[in-house]
Amino acid sequence: MNIRQELKTRFDQAELLRVKENNFKITVENWDIQDLVHNDLEKAALRVISEGRSGSNSCFGDSEETLIGLLEGAEESSRYGDPALFDYSQEKLQQFEAGEEEKYQQTPPAMMLDFLEEVKGFMAGAGREMTLNISLQKEYLEEKIETTRDGDLQENKTSFSLMVSVPVPGGGSQLGRLFVQPDFFSQVPEQELQNLIFEQERSREVSLPETGQLPVIFSPRSLYFLMISLIEGISAANIYRETSPLLGRLGEKIFSERLSITDRPRMEAAGSRRSFDDEGIPTREQSIVRRGELQNYIYDLEYAARLEEEPKGNGLKRTLFSDSIDTPVSPVLINPVIEPGNSSREQMVEGLQEGIMVENIVGFHSSNYQQGHFSVQAHGFHIQAGEIKGRLENVMIAGNIYQDFQQVAAAGRILYPGYYGYYPYLLVEGIQVTGR
């Protein structure tokens, strides 16, 4: 079946997204290999306009029978769809490189297993008993978009990730380090793993801060709560609905001048890097917050049309709770980066007489995060007289990002991978902490 011709014949307009995903993952639990999992998937999503109404459908596989079902489902959907507000992409972009798949194929499971043994050997040298969990993965991804308006975009990428984690005594939490890069690991990341070992040792004892306004060091792994709330605030969908706390605030100061955030979708090291979004719009670097001032909202095709703005490649099939081929498109940041400062984690810790370092938070989803509020349990460490004293237990932090992050005292100089982006350690003064 000539799919492009079929789309032109059957619909006023159509947009076909095809994804090929190949990944291999090795999981270690308590020092022993638990799983070796290989996935080889092909999936597709179709959006159409028929008689002025929008429809959509998705599928797994690429057989002719599957594609026929994809077309018929989208056609049926359009009969009950909303009025079409925008046209599909006319862009052409070829970012397909043969060497990307070769990197994936030339990293066999035996090489990955050898590297895992190196990581385990380094961790075993710590000399203290601990439970060790590791996830090592390679992933190859192809994405192609074609539209009946002659849009034609293709790209592919390979990425490798390593996650090393150790449970915190007492249960309910883990300490970990995530590493992501476009080429396979040439050496064990010893310094960061040494920091992880040190933190695991300090977590053996409980130490609680006094209740009150305290300085808080947020690790890159905990900052997803800040980024999720910000995405809700700058989403054109919420601007259009007039539910965003950032409505009408472009050019205003919403954070400390020490905080700058940039969307860098083509950052080479990022596992989430992309040249175009899920609607076939080329991505571009955008300043979101510059020295505390709000610079831009983010748009997909629908809300760019509703607000008469230009889409800049932020339409993705991703939400807080879903990231799959059948997820509706919404405006999101592709690869947000909190710009680094000139401090370090060690300097932040040494400078505190009393405070906490947050490694993870629990219960964020029940907060009113759309308005920037948070009231969550903090997992991490109590800091006193410039030293990590012990792990937190039943400690809460609460506040609002648009108020509390006016008081950023320092940003780390090193960026780490986090929730769909890259972040440094951040020191924030005066967060409400509930301790003893």
Characterize the structure shown.
The chain is an alpha+beta fold and 436 residues long. The protein folds into two domains: 197 residues, PmbA/TldD superfamily (PmbA/TldD fold), CATH 3.30.2290; 232 residues, no CATH class. 22% of the residues lie in helices and 37% in strands. It has ten helices and 22 strands. The strands form five sheets. Strands 1, 2, 3, 4, 5, 6 and 7 form a seven-stranded mixed β-sheet that branches. A five-stranded mixed β-barrel has the order 8-15-16-18-22. The longest helix has 16 residues.
What secondary-structure arrangement, pairings included, does this model have?
Elements: H1 3-10, E1 13-29, E2 32-50, E3 53-60, H2 64-78, E4 92-95, H3 98-105, H4 109-124, E5 133-147, E6 152-167, E7 174-181, H5 190-202, E8 212-218, H6 224-234, H7 236-241, E9 261-263, E10 286-290, E11 293-294, H8 301-307, E12 315-316, E13 330-331, E14 336-338, H9 345-350, E15 354-362, E16 373-384, E17 387-391, E18 395-400, H10 401-404, E19 408-411, E20 416-418, E21 421-423, E22 426-434
Parallel strand pairs: 4-6, 8-15
Antiparallel strand pairs: 1-2, 1-5, 2-3, 5-6, 6-7, 8-22, 9-10, 9-14, 10-11, 12-13, 15-16, 16-17, 16-18, 18-22, 19-22, 20-21
Structural class computed from helices and strand pairing: alpha+beta
Count, helices: 10
Portion of residues in beta strands equals: 35-45%
What is the distance, rounded to the nearest whole angstrom, between the alpha carbons of the first and last residues? Answer: 68 Å
Short structural summary:
With 436 residues, the chain is of the alpha+beta class.
